[in-house]
């Protein structure tokens, strides 16, 4: 059996195909394959390249951050420039998720790995949209966060109970409809009422959400898109630790 970490080509001898094993791939080549798989939204290629990375002994965190996540960030930048459709972004996010799934088990087994933080995230009560939330979750996972994704139409109390149970650092609230934005305010209000507002940072986002709304309801941060949300979370937790 030919190792996954070797390049191969098909040549023909006497009319018959023959596999020719070429040089062993470098780590950088494997990382590039991971990046390209996400850009092409090729889930199978992302999974295969993730297995190549593990077989070659590539650090799984590096495979996520410098391979898969790099590809998704590039797709996100193209989307921001209106060069891609939202559906393209979602397909790339799914490809990244498939690659992360392969690498995640190995990452979880590394006792020495330090998590960036624990994030409880979900789409608020009354809202069943999950596109933006899923992209943010994928990028947070790639950034070594412990992501507890509660899904869609999440009741306020579920955010609070999960955050307390997991000793979360941040609660992420997504709203894709203007009519469900008040549910974001409700979560912040309940944290104040229970005396736990200082225990958790709160970040809000979603298509109708703006910076002014975040300030109005007392949220700690607003993420205008997936990449911005990760950057804001990094800033929040960095300040908390200093």
Structural description of this entry:
Helix content is 54%, strand content 17%. The protein has 9 helices and 7 strands, in the order ββααααβαβαβαβαβα. It has 2 domains: 1-113, Methionine synthase domain (Methyltransferase, Methionine Synthase (B12-binding Domains), Chain A, domain 1); 115-242, 3-Layer(aba) Sandwich (Rossmann fold), CATH 3.40.50. The strands form 2 sheets. A 5-stranded parallel beta sheet has the order 4-3-5-6-7, with helices on both faces. The chain is globular. Residues 9-14 and 17-22 have low confidence and may be disordered. The longest helix has 24 residues, at 86-109. The protein has 242 residues and is α/β, with parallel strands linked by helices. Strand 6, helix 8 and strand 7 (221-223) form a beta-alpha-beta unit.
Sum up the overall morphology in one term.
Answer: globular
CATH-assigned homologous superfamily of the largest domain: Cobalamin-binding domain
Which residues sit in consecutive blocks of at least 5 with pLDDT less than 50? 9-14, 17-22
Q: Proportion of β residues? A: 15-25%
Number of strands: 7
Could you provide a short overview of the structure?
The chain has 242 residues and is of the alpha/beta class. It contains 9 helices and 7 strands, in the order ββααααβαβαβαβαβα.
Which short descriptors sum up this protein?
alpha/beta, 242 residues, Rossmann fold, Methyltransferase, Methionine Synthase (B12-binding Domains), Chain A, domain 1, five-stranded parallel β-sheet
């Amino acid at each position: 059996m030919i190792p996954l970490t070797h390049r191969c080509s098909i040549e023909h001898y006497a009319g018959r195909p023959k596999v020719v094993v070429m040089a062993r791939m470098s780590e950088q080549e494997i990382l590039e394959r991971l990046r390209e798989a996400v850009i092409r939204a090729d889930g199978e290629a992302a999974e295969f390249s993730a297995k190549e990375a593990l077989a070659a002994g590539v650090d799984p965190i590096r495979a996520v951050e410098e391979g898969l996540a790099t590809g998704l960030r590039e797709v996100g930048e193209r989307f921001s420039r209106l060069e891609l459709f939202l559906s393209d972004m979602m397909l790339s996010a799914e490809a990244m998720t498939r690659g992360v799934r392969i690498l995640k088990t190995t990452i979880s087994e590394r006792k020495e790995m330090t998590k960036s933080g624990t994030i409880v995230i979900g789409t608020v009560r009354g809202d069943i949209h999950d596109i933006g939330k899923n992209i943010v979750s994928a990028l947070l996972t790639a950034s070594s966060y412990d992501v507890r994704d509660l899904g869609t139409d999440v009741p306020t109390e579920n955010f609070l109970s999960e955050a307390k149970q997991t000793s979360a650092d941040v609660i992420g609230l997504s709203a894709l409809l203007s009519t469900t934005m008040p549910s974001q305010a409700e979560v912040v209000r309940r944290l104040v009422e229970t005396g736990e507002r200082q225990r958790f940072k709160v970040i809000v986002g979603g298509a109708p959400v703006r910076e002014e709304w975040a300030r109005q309801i007392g949220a700690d941060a607003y993420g205008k898109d997936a990449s911005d949300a990760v950057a804001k979370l990094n800033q929040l937790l960095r300040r908390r630790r200093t």
